[in-house]
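USER:
Before I trust my own judgement here, I would like a peer's view. Write it directly below this note and I will take it from there.

ASSISTANT:
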Amino acid sequence: MHVVVFGLKNKMKKILKKILYLLSKSDKLSILSKKIVDYHRNENNCEIETNGEGDFIKKNSKHFDVVFDVGANIGEWSNLIGETLPNSKIYSFEPSKSTFTTLSQNIKSKNISAFNIGLGDKKEEKTFYIYGGDSTLNSSINRDIESHTKTIESAKFDTLENFCSEHKIPKISFLKIDVEGGELSVLKGAEKYIKEGKIDFIQFEYGGTYIDAGILLKDMFNFFDNTPYTIHKVLQHSLKEIKQYSQELENFQYANYIAVLNK
């Protein structure tokens, strides 16, 4: 009897594989399947209202007194936080001169302070790359984007630790990093604060920008080794703790991760 059941299972597996193989030939089904996987993994969705970012902030709003928006662009994220957390102090950082002008004009809340600098692993002035009219692509990383005309400008950078020392900021509630491939550099400039647990939550973006930057998600996980943090992936309505790095995570699809301070 056991042999018969085993034989039936193998036969069903072969039939199922054949069906999947035939279905995989359809381009439309392939595209639909990719979208389903994206929704399941909460990847390739940059809308804060639906990708879990806004949900996480609302759930933890009472804990956010000091917020850093590193890579503020034109201020959409900062404004949303300013409205959601009217009693918090928000520091917005944007290194591009032209984008910073738009950011300054767009700021709606009095609790937002904008700074025309980027944060990185050292204090310096370096080349900043501007990609056509899409400021969300701008980066300190020389990215390979053929569809956009690239120009350069000089931008000022400093470390998070230097900035906090200068502005007398002993602790940060929420650090959001969206700098198109420069995420690890920002963390290195905040290493002392991170090791001492002076930042409650650290959100960093992951995606295709890491290819041009020459880093991996693995490098981000390695950075948090021997620190008082656990890493979580942001899902639509929750956080999923990632207890250990796996190569399966390394797909370069846009997603957000949050390092949570263990208290």
User: Anything to note?
Assistant: The CA atoms of residues 184 and 220 lie 6 Å apart. The first strand starts at residue 66 and ends at 70. The mean pLDDT is 91. The two ends are 55 Å apart (CA to CA).
